[in-house]
Amino acid sequence: MNDVAAVYKITCHPINESYIGQSKSFYGRCKAHLGALRNGTHDNKLLQETYDFFGEEAFTIEIVERVNDSDWLMFREFYHMMKTQCSINTKQYLPYRYPSVSIINTKRRNKKEREYQELLEYKSKYHALLERHNRLLEQVTEVLIRESKSI
After folding, report:
1. Whether pTM exceeds 0.70
2. What CATH number labels 6-104?
3. H-type alpha helices, 60-105
């Protein structure tokens, strides 16, 4: 398969949020993203946390635009970042890559971050409840076993 220069999008479908990137070697970059995410070492901590929370099956990677002239990759990436208002990479990525760009949609991003934190809190509460439920189930099972032995 011939590699292509492209702007690509990694989408987390349960929360409908995306990460926009660009590479002269799209397929190689996809492998690098997936390898880092699977190993828990991705540079973008928000993308890594989202991947860890929802799992690989919640994500897709697709080409948004093939770019014939690789000198235009960064400009096309920026265009698609603004067009989609991607939130997974704007927090840490945009100010670094494009320092002249002011923070975009701060309210929207802050709302998404709050929602994400609420999801993490919900996950934590869910796991605590599940642990409590499992302990209770074990206790009930032990009582039933003791009672069945005494009969």
Report:
1. no
2. 3.40.1440.10
3. 73-84, 90-97
Q: How many Å apart are CA 107 and CA 14, to the nearest integer?
A: 21
- Tell me which residue has tokens 């946390």: 49
The rounded distance, in Å, linking the Cα atoms of 57 and 38 is 12
What residue segments make up the domains of the chain, in order of their start? 6-104, 106-151
Question: C-alpha distances in angstroms, 53 versus 10, 41, 112, 117?
Answer: 15, 14, 15, 11
Length of the chain: 151
Q: What is the pLDDT along the chain (151 residues), one digit of tens a residue?
A: 678 999 999 998 888 888 999 999 999 999 999 999 999 999 888 888 889 888 999 999 999 999 998 888 888 888 888 787 776 765 444 444 444 443 444 555 666 677 777 777 777 777 778 788 888 888 888 888 888 887 6
Task: Centre a 10 Å sphere on the Cβ of residue 97 and count the other Cβ atoms it contains.
Answer: 13
